[in-house]
Amino acid sequence: MTIEATWLANSGASLCDLSNGTAHWKADLDAPAGDATLPNPHDLLDSALAACTTLTLQIYAKRRNYDLQEVRVTVSHEEAPGTYKLVRRLELQGNLDEKAREDLLRVANKCPVHKVLSSQISIDTTLAG
């Protein structure tokens, strides 16, 4: 799947439209330059990890018949020159023993976005015609 981001100078704003061909959403710069009600690119990256973790835990808990009633994942980040550290915190509600909680933590660390962000990433950029 390909994500497309579009910005038009005549819009008078800094926000961009995003689409994967079926879903559509927007992103903007941080306030005060942009619209503070929209996610910025770092929010989108961090939210990809939070969403993937939440969905992965939900599916896994159902398969294992764990009594998982609620998942809350918070992701923040710390930036320094040359580094971007994601800090993820899991809150798991339900009748879960320590073994189930440890199993869910193990699975959270294997969600697809976690795997991608933990691996070597390369970016190949070209100019279109």
UniProtKB/TrEMBL annotation:
InterPro entries in the record: KH_dom-like_a/b, OsmC/Ohr_fam, OsmC/Ohrsf
Keywords: Plasmid
UniProt signal peptide: none
Superkingdom of origin organism: Bacteria
Protein name: Osmotically inducible protein (OsmC-like)
Classification lineage: Bacteria, Pseudomonadati, Pseudomonadota, Betaproteobacteria, Burkholderiales
